[in-house]
Automatic annotation (TrEMBL):
Gene3D superfamilies reported for this sequence: 3.10.620.30
One protein family per Pfam: SLH
InterPro entries reported for this sequence: Cell_Envelope_Struct_Comp (IPR051465), Papain-like_cys_pep_sf (IPR038765), SLH_dom (IPR001119), Transglutaminase-like (IPR002931)
SMART domains xrefs: TGc
Protein name per UniProt: S-layer homology domain-containing protein
Start and end residues of each SLH domain: 11-69, 70-133
Amino acid sequence: MLSLSHAGPASADTFTDVSTTSSYASYIDDLVQLGVTDGVEPGKFGPTQTLTRAQFAKFVTVAFQLKDDGSSPPFNDIQGHWAASPIRAAYQAGVVNGTGPDRFSPDLPVKREEAAAMIWRLAVSKGVVPAPADLLFRDAPDTWATEAVSGVLSKEWYGEDVTRSGSAWSYRPRDPMTRQEMAALLDRSIRSLPGTVAATMPVTAAATAAATAAVKKPNENTPTSAPVLPSWQQSLKSHLLNQDTEFDVTLDNSEQFQEIKPFIEQVMADNDYLHYVYKGMQYEYDGRSTVSFQVSYLESKAQTDEVAKQAKQIVSSIIRPGMNDFEKEKAVHDYVITRLAYDQTLSDHTAYGGLTKGTTVCQGYALLTYRLLTEAGIPNRIVEGHAGGQLHTWNLVQLNGSWYHLDTTWDDPVPDEKGRLTYNYFNLTDAQMRQDHSWTGNYPAADQDFLQTIRQLAQSGEISQNSARTLLSDTGLTSDSGGNAADTLPSLQAAIERGVSAGQDQFTVRYKNTLGAAPAVMKKALTDSMMRKYEVKQFKYSYGEDTRVPGYMVITVTVTYFS
């Protein structure tokens, strides 16, 4: 099997407020696929909304892969701010200056000349030669921004927001920058500069335009179109996407035969679901013009279509209006674990098998998770690697601009137990995941701690305090450093008793590894007197090494009470 992975199918088409005829659509599409943005809310990009200085700094940090080294800038107004880390990273890279000696003013609108200056400083640091002689402006930038704006114009890093009359340019330097204008500036610049998220991604419409300097003339309202594939590639791609099993493709010349394999790899790389239902292929060339293909898939086209149909129905039933992306992801996670059981016969590898039979292996878990998250509007990928000494697949999920590992298979341990939900592999960083998983493919970095993100977003008001509290409580992740993390047997018993006394059917506790093996420790902790006191009919539990807190075991306790 060809083994190449790639990002999910999110695009500007997802956004109901981005017209397909918009000249900015291709730039927005690129940034979505590159993981730089996922919109302001499900189905909305907010193209004409203005950006703050903090928001633009965050976009620059993601697009140019800047890292916060922990050193402190002189700004005293970013402490506790949701964007403190990206602002620090941008300052450390020499990208941003403050609005005063000790102020960054993160919540002020970012002016177009300020945005140009940030990008131009990065460009110069990456070896771009200074801009030519100052251009003629009808609305001249401030003196400190003149070189930057001139540089951006000379590199043609702009969209329809720039106009020109004769030799005089209009950049509107002191206007606030909008989200669609940001998309044009970032997409064009990252395609021209090294060390950006674009470095490992496929060539797209805007990438081709930037690479060839075939830049739109100002005020030209024709959107950038996708590169036209040769007819044989269009035919082959169409057959693969339709999951056809036998077909012929006509080549224009014999040299194109050598291009078939890399083109197939690219098609698979651009379509995660197709990649993981593809089984194998044989093709023969008649030596003149015709190549005959025989392709096999783990799912038929009808079965894949049925998965897509059911995915729409499932998402409409589990996603409530007003849910944020974190809540949607949890709903998908819980559905998959509740609906599926691991196929110990190792006979089914598909989402279709999981939906129709209720059992599948990790590949089926990852495919169903992928399809449901995609239907819910959440960018994600399928990761291929090893875990538990064998080949394994799971998902990478993009939430609020950061990537996290999500393994629904390992959160559904064998033997299957109806109603049991665990979150040991729910939104882990690369470092946390590498404790028992490995992978070698080229995937987005997952380096943002999930718990820290949720708390910061709640503090900034981007998600409600109640939403954050409920999410962490329902997943049992509030116990990572709280009262449910036990260092002694009595403290473990007290943590269990808190859950039972509250009448919880399921809860999570942690204890320090030095207390001993889980079966022996839990045998001592779950006492007959506790069962009698709270009218408990049965205790069940699952356990494993804590993926977030080294040196601890995490126990998921399920309780059945006498009615």
